[in-house]
């Protein structure tokens, strides 16, 4: 029990570091996770709401062993954010820090993404962030086709629950996987495609930008373009490039 409480405390602390405000109400079966522009309650009395469905799915992921990565991970990394998000970021797979914390896009790459979004008036608390694979591949190797085939249905169910207006694929491998074909990230970055009929924006991955600082300007331009479309989302949605 002590281990569980310590684990929960650590995860809540990490969420707070990411900009979430969290209250746990003593003597209640409810906890609330509140970002800067949203408020949602986890309540056993609302069986059909998005949070309850996301929680149920995350419990499935927590015990999943559909591919070998389930036995290698320290923690599954389900995803985090606003259940009513209009924008969902999708990366490829958890890295070492994500595996440790159970949270996506923590560490320097996550901080870079958070900073760029904040420049354009978007908080981490109002979007949702997840990966295609929910468990870390050893030594951050590329996910294998059978791992993607086993895990992608979780992503699709997540999107079915979230019903976002737009997606952002982060990095070459994530975008290649979502589009199911090879791409040159430098050629297609900054453009829109479709993933299961949801507009998908293509951006460089913040971790790649940290390794290749000369691409920082491209990443900043990607996020600026995405943010402009996000802020216009009530009037119009982006038109994907047809190929
Ligand atoms: S990577 Fe996905 S399919 Fe494989 S064990 Fe983890 S949750 Fe299950």
Topology:
Layout lengths: L1 H16 L3 E4 L6 E5 L2 E5 L7 H13 L6 H4 L7 E2 L5 E5 L4 H6 L5 H13 L8 E4 L13 H18 L3 E5 L1 H8 L5 H4 L3 E4 L2 E6 L2 H6 L4 H16 L12
Parallel strand pairs: 5-6, 5-7, 7-9
Antiparallel strand pairs: 1-2, 2-3, 4-6, 8-9
This protein binds iron/sulfur cluster (SF4).
The site of iron/sulfur cluster has 14 residues, from α3 and α6.
Please sum up the structure shown.
The protein is of the alpha/beta class. Helix content is 43%, strand content 16%. The radius of gyration is 17 Å and the shape is globular.
Instruction: Say what the CATH topology is.
Output: Uracil-DNA Glycosylase, subunit E
Major β-sheet annotation: 6 strands, mixed
- CATH homologous superfamily label: Uracil-DNA glycosylase-like domain
Question: What would the average pLDDT be, to the nearest integer?
Answer: 85
Output the strand order for the largest sheet: 4-6-5-7-9-8
How far apart, in Å, are the first and last alpha carbons? 54 Å
Low-confidence stretches: 16-47
Radius of gyration: 17 Å
What can you see in these coordinates?
With 243 residues, the chain is α/β, with parallel strands linked by helices. The protein has a single domain (46-231), classed as Uracil-DNA glycosylase-like domain (Uracil-DNA Glycosylase, subunit E), CATH 3.40.470.10. Helix content is 43%, strand content 16%. It is built from ten helices and nine strands. The protein has helices at 2-17, 50-62, 69-72, 96-101, 107-119, 145-162, 172-179, 185-188, 206-211, 216-231; strands at residues 21-24, 31-35, 38-42, 80-81, 87-91, 128-131, 166-170, 192-195, 198-203. The strands form two sheets. It has a six-stranded mixed beta sheet, with helices on both faces. Helix 2 (50-62) runs antiparallel to helix 6 (145-162). The longest helix has 18 residues, at 145-162. It is globular, with a radius of gyration of 17 Å. Residues 61, 64-67, 69-70, 76, 133-135, 147, 150-151 line the site of iron/sulfur cluster.
